[in-house]
Amino acid sequence: MLRELGLSRDEEAVYTALLTRPVASVADVVRRTVLSGPEVERVLGDLAVRGLVAVEPAGTLPADGAAGERSADRYRLTPPSVALAPVLVEQRNALQRAETAFSMLTEQYRSAAAHPAGGVVEVVVGVEQVAHRFHQLQRGAQHELLTFLGGEATAVQRADADVSESFALERGVAFRAVAAQDYLDGEGVLRDVHAGIEAGLRLRLADTLPLKMLVSDGERAMVPLDMTETGGEPSAIVVHRSGLLGALVHLFEREWEKARPLYAAAGAVRVEDGAPDGPTEGELAVLALLLAGVSDRRAAAQLGVSVRTVERRTRRLMDLAGADSRLQLGWYAARAGWL
């Protein structure tokens, strides 16, 4: 927490210890951290130089030990509202300077790349380069991310992509995704998808998608290339603002309108317990997939249950809803707020 304010790991440990005891000796702090005496003494000295703590010299306070024993130096924590406020102000000013520099560099780059061939499309080759560019686009988004998901991840591992996705959602970035049916077949994907939806991800399913793609703030897009075209080495193109980028955004919106929404049932999808007069979490997990147009067999594979279990859960949901068809079941589920 305090490292965002410029404190090192050791400084954060010492500062946190002083929060529980604002006036303490080196020995007191050692007992509250995993640091040694010399390490604590060094950190306290650094914090004192920066005005985060004040030193009360030995002899100004009663000794803790036997009568006549000289007391050790004590360190008093400066109120955070006084000591850390200038640090926060400086960081804000530094951020403003960085944003100004970023705007200037961006404008210079656009001016230098005014030639259509150099400013519209760039080719990125290599696993590390593709992954780095992907994270740049996802973590740099300020307003909205659009993505097509399909098949297995290549240069960008799914776990890494999930981290960037969570980071974007936590920052309040709108995130819409269209996934192909086969994307949900990956191990652990359904669990991650449910977590993403609960965090704010809007996801729809399509039978197939024309390509994989990520669009960041409508400013640039990344499209993986067929590895056979580059000798088997992962590669991608990054498309900057242009008519081509507009076409990619239009393609996403068209697929988004045609795709079926995927809902997330609360809790773990394999939990069977629940109120006897209402749907269980396992049944809601089945319902979420069925409403997205997933077949019984594919739903069973994704949930790790048998097709018969999917059919049994569906039958019970229809009985609860008094529905004669799955279409009626979907209508009732929407009205009842099951999902």
Describe this structure in words.
This protein has about 350 residues and is an alpha+beta fold. It has four domains: about 1-80, Winged helix-like DNA-binding domain superfamily/Winged helix DNA-binding domain (Arc Repressor Mutant, subunit A), CATH 1.10.10.10; about 80-110; about 120-260, Endonuclease Chain A (Endonuclease, Chain A, 2-Layer Sandwich), CATH 3.30.870; about 280-335, Orthogonal Bundle (Arc Repressor Mutant, subunit A), CATH 1.10.10.10. The protein has 14 helices and eleven strands. It has helices at about 10-20, 25-30, 35-50, 80-85, 85-110, 115-120, 125-140, 160-170, 190-200, 245-260, 280-290, 295-305, 305-320, 325-335, and strands at about 25, 55, 75, 120-125, 145-150, 175-180, 200-205, 215, 220-225, 235-240, 260. The strands form two sheets. Strands 4-10-9-8-5-6-7-11 form an eight-stranded mixed β-sheet, sandwiched between helices. The chain has a three-stranded antiparallel β-sheet with strand order 1-3-2. β5, α8 and β6 (about 175-180) form a beta-alpha-beta unit. α11 (about 280-290) packs across α12, α11 packs across α13 and α13 packs across α14. The longest helix has 28 residues, at about 85-110.
